[in-house]
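Quick illustration, no need to memorize.
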Amino acid sequence: MNKTKFRSYNKITPKLGKKVYVDESSILVGDISIGDDVSIWPLVAARGDVNTISIGNRTNVQDGTVLHVTRKSAGNPTGNPLIIGEDVTVGHKCMLHGCTLGDRILVGMGAIIMDGAVIENDVFIGAGSLVPPHKTLESGYLYVGNPIKQVRLLKESEQAFLSQSAINYVELKNEYLAQQ
């Protein structure tokens, strides 16, 4: 592994699945597990130092996003790992901190998801939204705002786009890998 992209912390180094693309300007540190066909785009910072980060298959994390975790403490003995499911699109310049995301989610550009928040499967989060700590977003809805509010059920076309977005990024990632 290229030491400029991957760093150990407490002798734990990020683990990558098959056919993963990590842009050379991104940095992954510590206890991070990345599934197959994942893409990590320019300037992503992922720090699995005081807890773990897990990223599911076919997920894409776009430019300038920060991924971090919450440390274990007396008041929170397990802390908050960052868990991102499969077929998730994380837009540009997002902040995901110690939260859990299910499958087939689109996190709009500039969104912030705080510690202990749970995003169920099949959710759209609008650009610039703020998901407060420990908030749960129910499956099948569009959410927007600061703080975030449930707006409406997803349309069929939007539901289909959640998977299509992941497929689009797998294809783009494959083009980048072919050029290396």
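Residues 156-178 form the longest helix (23 residues).
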